Amino acid sequence: MTTRQAPTPATRPSAATKPMRWAADAVSALREGARVRLDYSAQSLWRVDRLIEEIRREGAPYAAVETVLRGLGAYAGEVVVRQAGAEWWTSGGDHWVRTPDGRLWDPVDEARRCFAGDGSLRLLCRDATGAVRR
After folding, report:
1. Cα(134)–Cα(131) distance, rounded to whole angstroms?
2. Among 30, 32, 66, 81, which has the minimal tally of Cβ within 10 Å of its Cβ?
3. Residue 41, Cβ neighbours under 10 Å: how many?
């Protein structure tokens, strides 16, 4: 009987390279700049949703926060990857998370939707990981 372990960062598909880096950069920047610690848990996405809401309420222009939103979306994607055994997919420069049930999720776009006041990374994670458990 052959068993497969979850891929480590060194063995993950090349589609994961950029989103993993964006997520790690966001985690590092928040830890150093805002003293916010993110641990890649589904619960941490409550904090991420609140951070995006605070940025939006402060009236920051989208162009000023585009990179931050990309990083926070990638962070949410990494949470789904780790929680659900999903994997990153890429095409034409866009990155999605594919859960084992074959569904595609776009956490980077969901972060943008959060900034627009109509999205939730926490709920995306709940839906993506819940779809896997069914």
Report:
1. 6
2. 32
3. 13
| 3-state DSSP assignment of residue 5 | coil
Neighbours of 14 (CB within 10 A): 8
Phi first, then psi, for residue 35 (nearest 5°) are 60, 35
Q: What is the mean pLDDT of residues 62-70?
A: 96
Confidence (pTM): 0.86
Burial per residue of 68-85, b for 16 or more beta-carbon CB atoms within 10 angstroms, e otherwise: bbbbbbbbbbbbbbebbe
Q: What is the pLDDT of residue 53?
A: 96
DSSP 86-105: -EEEEETTEEEEE-TTS-EE
